[in-house]
Structures are given as C-alpha cells and as structure tokens.
C-alpha cells in the first residue's frame, strides 16, 4: 500500500518533470534566432517556398498553439518529423538510442571496475605509498574533463600506438547481420565474436574517456567510506573470529560502504550520459549525442525536442534505478 | 599452566614515547573468571585487544609475551594467529548496537566462524545457532536468525553476541564491558546470562569492567589497572576483604554497595592518585 503510493507519487513527479522539460526546450529552440526552413532550402528558394514549408511544419502558428499540436502528437506516439532527415523523429531517435546506451553502459562498467579496484586496493594498502599513489592518480583523473581525456586517448592509442579504432561504431566495410541496433549485445548473442571485437575496439576509447572521471570519483568516495567502515565494531569482531583482511573488506565493510557511493554514482552517471554528446562527436560515433549536435546546427526543431525529451526520460530512469537499488541493498529501507 | 598467560606486556603509541601498557602481567586459568578493573583510560580494553590481535594500527607492542594454551601469540604469523584466536577465543563486545553488521542477517553472523574458519557443515552450524539462541533465552530463534540487527532491541542483540561468542566452544572469552551500553534493567539479566553460560560451558573469562559490583558477582580473580600498570593482582575474596594497594582500597571505598552503579562516579582522593601515579613514574624510570 505504502509502496504503491510511493510509486504513484514518483510517476506523478516524473510526468511533471518531463512536461516542464518539454515546455522549456520547446520555447528555447523557438526564440533563438535561425530559421530552420530557410536553412534547409537551396539558396535560390523564393519567399513563397519558405512560407509554404513553414506552414507545412506548423511553424507559422504561435508557440502555445505549436506546443499543443506537438503535445497532442506526442500523446499518440508521434514526435513530429525531422526537418532535415524528413523521417519521423521517433524512428530516428530510437535508431540512435541503442548506440548511446551501449556506450554509456560500457563506460559505467569500466568506471565501476576501475574505481572499485582503486578503492579496494587503496583500502587494503591504506596508509602506505600505494594508497598515496592511488590518491594522486585519482586526483589527476579528476582534474581533466572527459573530452580532453578523449583527445589524449585518440593521440595515445589512435595515433601514437594505433591499437584501437578512433572513429565510428563499426568498420564500415563489414557485413552486419543485425536486426536490432544493439550491435554490442547482438553480436554477442549471435556469437559473432569477430564483429564483437571490432565493435568493442571502436567503443573502448570513447567509453574509457567517459569512464575515467567517474572511476576517480568512485575510487575516492568508496575508499573513503570503506576506510571509515573498517574501524567499526562489527569489522573488528569479524577479525576476532579468524577472518583476514581481504574477507573483512569484501564481506563486512563493502556491503555497507557501498551505499553512499551508489547514490553519487547515480547522479554522476547522468552527467556521464550528458558527456556522450561531445565524446560521440569527437569519435564520430553514431549515437544520440552526435545526432543532437547536427540537429542543433541545422535548427531541426522537432528532432532537438525529441532528443532532449529522450535524454530527460533516460536521466529519470537512471535515478529511479538507483533509488530501487538503494532500497534493495539497504535492509533498513527494505523493512522500514 | 594457565590457559592465558600475559607476561610483562608493554605497548605504546607508534613513534612516540606515550606508554599505554606498562609491563602488564596476568593469568587466566582454564574455566576461571578474572575481572580487569580500573578507571577509564587505564588500558583495560588495550589488553583485551592485544590478546585478540586487534590493536589499532597506531599502537605497537614493545615487549612481553602472550601465551595462549602454551603458544606464544606474538611470534606467530598473522594468519596462524588469526586462526588460533578464531578457533579458541571469542569476544563479547561492549556495544551491541554497533557490533553486528547492519547489512547481514543474524543467522550467518553467528554461524560464519563455524563454517568458514572451523569447517563445520552449514546444516550443523544452523542447528547450533538455533540451539544457542535457545540457550540465551531467545524465544523465537527461527525469526531472529532471519532478522536484520535493526529489527532487534539492544538486549536481544547482546544475547545474540553472547550466543555467537559461545558458538565454537572457545576456551577463553574476553568480555569488554558487555553491559555498559545497555539499559540498567537489562544489565542485570545480561550479566546473569554471561555468568550462567560461563559456568555451564566452563569457559575461562577475562571480564573488563568499571563496576566492582559485577566483579563481586562473577569473578574469582581481579587485576586492578592504573595507567597501564597492574597495581594489584589478587583473588576476589582477598580483594573484598581488604585490598593491599591504596588505589584498590579507594576504588572499593568509592563503591560502598557493590550494586550501586552511580557510586563508581565518586572521586578517588587526590593523595591516592598521587601515590599510584608515583608507582607509574617509578616504573617509567626503571624501564627506559
Ligand atoms: N586508537 C588509539 N590511538 C591512540 N591511543 C589510543 C587509541 N585507543 C585508545 N588509546 C589510548 O589508550 C589508553 C587506554 O585506552 P583503553 O581503551 O584501553 O582504556 P580503557 O581502560 O578500556 O578505558 P574505558 O573504561 O574508557 O573503556 C587511553 O589513554 C586511550 O587514550
Ligand atoms: Mg575500554
């Protein structure tokens, strides 16, 4: 009962948030200068042509009118038609979403692995030079933003020692037998490890660039809370039972120390997804972010709206998942 | 030979000359209860931690010996020492609210040592846990074993920690003020429970406490500690009929009725403190 109310409340606030985002984006893209219709037509187009197309896309109406028309469409699953691509926005956006999801999740996995290793090693070797080394590495990882990591990685592993691809999502000459846009997942499911390797080799550097700052944050925060937890009585009691350092860190301290990190990772992961916009551009990776930049350059209003709404939905979903995970991992909330 | 024999144990804060233990010697015979009393900061918990190998990193042992059943603990490898401690001793901690892991169920926190360290089968360990909860008078063991710590009261949790301490039939239990954090009404029950369990299992017990009333009830031997120095080591009988050291006498005088917990807050006369501090200073001059 209580749970049901919590869920309803959550859905309601989510809906209001999304409506707010929609309104803001809708208005902002229409008040900034730049006529999308004029930009898509060849230079010799007449004023009539422009007027005709403007009317066709409904851009001659007032902003509130346009919004109502758009909102009605959205409720029926129609997000409008892209001005530049002349295809339904929903198809375009959903076609690119898997690429961005795969990239973000890969970055998250890398960040959790790197950050986890840093935190656990730092705790195991606390108060030694190893811990100091980890702290310094973390500090450096944090003081450089993701897109600069992207540039550095391109220089290092794309140019200097070219072991990874630095452009695109997959080698263009390859035959792709895929029926979905989840290339990474589908290549695995189809046991096409040759393709999988090619895809990973394209994704790895952009994912790593996105992951490095998050890994540093995870490493720092998790280490901090692990070290605090290691002083607690139940950890000491476990030692008197005969358990060694590794066991005590992993089984007694980690499950409790992980909770504060989890909340932060949720927030930071949404930043990471935001970071895909520039990183995808940098690595010519055909995802949502890359598409968003093109849409903005071309003033493709329906497409911009679609992409922004989708990002907002993703962010909300991430926060929801984090809250659920928190409840699952924290027995106090589970029974509260 | 005594089951536990601590000889001339000294400890200090690493990299300083701040002494915490000054040549502490004490023994606990098999099946015997020794009370370790002294005011706050005297080093009572340090002794327990040194024996169990859980001293804070900032503290180092500078000399002495700890023999457990004839085995020198201080020269064992860390892994061997942990195993020996885990197999033959146990700790009843002070604060039941912080001594149980909040994210683990009660059952595994009782049985983990049996299964992981001592190699029992899971079913045997589970059966043992149920039996133990019965023994510490917890009426619905099945529910409690599946519960998380926050679902249980402080008294319940201390019963669980006692059960857990006795689980592997240790030869020695160190109880560090096991009732201090509890409600006054619960304190008596828990104390009685520990005494009963100790007698039934014949476990040697090193009982750290402020409370001379507790000592009178459960201990056969007493060590009085001041400034990391043992100022008196005697039988309970002798202690309560007439302790030798002025400091011990003052402690006792501060507790006219053994059962009055507030009395231990009475101040010790300055002259007595000066005398016992002189002992400490004398030790520091004697032992560089
Ligand atoms: N982690 C630590 N680092 C440095 N000194 C410490 C640490 N823990 C305790 N001490 C010091 O060691 C001395 C002995 O402390 P201990 O905990 O053994 O006292 P105690 O007799 O158990 O007192 P209480 O009755 O308050 O529990 C104290 O002077 C204390 O300040
Ligand atoms: Mg203490």
Task: List the SSEs and their pairings.
The complex is a heterodimer of chains A (336) and B (288).
Chain A: H1 2-31, H2 36-40, H3 47-56, H4 63-75, H5 89-124, H6 129-143, H7 146-160, H8 183-189, H9 193-229, H10 233-240, H11 245-282, H12 288-297, H13 301-329, H14 331-335
Helix pairs in contact in A: 1-13, 5-6, 5-9, 5-11, 5-13, 6-9, 7-9, 7-11, 8-9, 9-11, 10-11, 11-12, 11-13, 12-13
Chain B: E1 4-13, E2 19-28, E3 33-37, H1 44-52, E4 59-68, E5 71-72, H2 78-88, E6 89-92, H3 106-117, H4 122-135, H5 141-146, H6 154-166, E7 172-176, H7 184-201, E8 204-208, H8 212-218, E9 221-226, E10 229-235, H9 236-241, H10 246-253, H11 270-286
Parallel strand pairs in B: 3-8, 3-9, 6-7, 7-8
Antiparallel strand pairs in B: 1-2, 1-4, 4-5, 9-10
The structure holds adenosine-5'-triphosphate (ATP) and magnesium ion.
Describe the structure.
The complex is a heterodimer of chains A (336) and B (288). Chain A has helices spanning 2-31, 36-40, 47-56, 63-75, 89-124, 129-143, 146-160, 183-189, 193-229, 233-240, 245-282, 288-297, 301-329, 331-335. With 336 residues, chain A is mainly alpha-helical. Chain A has a domain at 91-292: MetI-like fold (Orthogonal Bundle), CATH 1.10.3720. Chain B has 288 residues and is an alpha/beta fold. Chain B is 42% helix and 22% strand. Chain B has helices spanning 44-52, 78-88, 106-117, 122-135, 141-146, 154-166, 184-201, 212-218, 236-241, 246-253, 270-286; strands spanning 4-13, 19-28, 33-37, 59-68, 71-72, 89-92, 172-176, 204-208, 221-226, 229-235. In chain B, helix 7 (184-201) links the parallel strand 7 (172-176) and strand 8 (204-208). The longest helix of chain B has 18 residues, at 184-201. The mean pLDDT of chain B is 91. At the A-B interface, helix 10, helix 11 and helix 14 of A face helix 2, strand 6 and helix 3 of B. The complex binds adenosine-5'-triphosphate and magnesium ion (MG). Residues 44-45, 176 of chain B line the site of magnesium ion. Residues 13, 20, 38, 40-46, 56, 58-59, 210 of chain B line the site of adenosine-5'-triphosphate.
């Amino acid at each position: 009962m209580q749970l049901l109310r919590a869920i309803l409340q959550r859905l309601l606030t989510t809906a209001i948030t999304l409506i707010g985002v929609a309104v803001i984006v809708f208005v902002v893209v229409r008040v900034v200068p730049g006529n999308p219709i004029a930009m898509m037509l060849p230079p010799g187009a007449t004023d009539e042509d422009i007027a005709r197309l403007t009317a066709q896309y409904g851009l001659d109406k007032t902003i509130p009118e346009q919004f109502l028309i758009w909102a009605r469409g959205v409720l029926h699953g129609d997000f409008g038609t892209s001005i530049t691509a002349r295809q339904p926005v929903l198809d375009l956006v959903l076609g690119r979403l898997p690429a961005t999801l795969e990239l973000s999740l890969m970055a998250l996995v890398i960040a959790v692995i790197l950050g986890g290793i840093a935190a656990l090693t730092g705790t195991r070797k606390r108060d030694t030079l190893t811990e100091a080394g980890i702290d310094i590495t973390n500090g450096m990882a944090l003081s450089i933003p993701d897109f600069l990591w992207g540039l550095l990685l391109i220089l290092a592993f794309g140019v200097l020692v070219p072991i990874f691809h630095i452009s695109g999502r997959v080698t263009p000459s390859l035959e792709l037998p895929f029926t979905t846009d989840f290339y990474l997942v589908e290549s695995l499911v189809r046991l096409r490890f040759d393709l999988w390797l090619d895809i990973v080799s394209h994704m790895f550097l952009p994912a790593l660039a996105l992951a490095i700052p998050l890994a540093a944050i995870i490493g720092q925060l998790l280490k901090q809370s692990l070290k605090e937890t290691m002083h607690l009585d139940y950890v000491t009691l476990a030692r008197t039972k005969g358990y060694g350092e590794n066991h005590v860190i992993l089984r007694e301290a980690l499950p409790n120390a992980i909770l504060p990190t989890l909340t932060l990772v949720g927030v930071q992961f949404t930043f990471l997804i935001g970071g895909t916009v520039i990183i995808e551009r940098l690595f010519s990776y055909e995802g949502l972010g890359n598409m968003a930049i093109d849409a903005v350059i071309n003033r493709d209003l329906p497409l911009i709206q679609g992409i922004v709404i989708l990002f907002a939905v993703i962010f909300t979903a991430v926060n929801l998942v984090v809250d659920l995970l928190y409840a699952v991992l924290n027995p106090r909330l589970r029974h509260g | 030979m005594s089951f536990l024999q601590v000889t001339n144990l000294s400890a200090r804060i690493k990299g300083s000359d701040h002494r915490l233990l000054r040549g502490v010697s004490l023994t606990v015979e098999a099946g015997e209860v020794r009370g370790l009393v002294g005011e706050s900061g005297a080093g009572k918990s340090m002794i327990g931690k040194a024996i169990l190998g859980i001293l804070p990193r900032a503290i180092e042992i500078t000399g002495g010996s700890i023999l457990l059943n004839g085995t020198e603990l201080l020269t064992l490898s860390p892994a061997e020492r942990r195993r020996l401690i885990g197999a033959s001793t146990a700790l009843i901690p002070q604060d039941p609210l912080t001594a149980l892991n909040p994210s683990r169920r009660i059952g595994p926190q009782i049985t983990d040592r049996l299964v992981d360290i001592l190699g029992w089968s899971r079913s045997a360990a589970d059966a043992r846990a149920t039996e133990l909860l019965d023994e510490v008078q917890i009426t619905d063991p099945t529910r409690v074993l599946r519960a998380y710590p926050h679902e249980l009261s402080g008294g319940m949790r201390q019963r669980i920690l006692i059960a857990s301490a006795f689980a592997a039939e240790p030869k020695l239990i160190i109880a560090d003020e096991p009732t201090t954090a509890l409600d006054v009404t619960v304190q008596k029950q828990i104390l009685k429970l520990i005494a009963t369990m100790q007698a039934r299992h014949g476990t040697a017990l090193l009982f750290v406490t402020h409370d001379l009333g507790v000592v009178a009830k459960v201990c056969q031997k007493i060590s009085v500690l001041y400034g990391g120095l043992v100022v008196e080591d005697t039988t309970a009988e002798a202690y309560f009929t007439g302790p030798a050291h002025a400091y011990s006498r003052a402690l006792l005088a501060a507790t006219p009725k053994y059962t009055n917990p507030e009395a231990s807050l009475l101040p010790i006369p300055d002259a007595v403190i000066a005398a016992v501090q002189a002992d400490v200073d004398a030790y520091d001059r004697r032992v560089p």
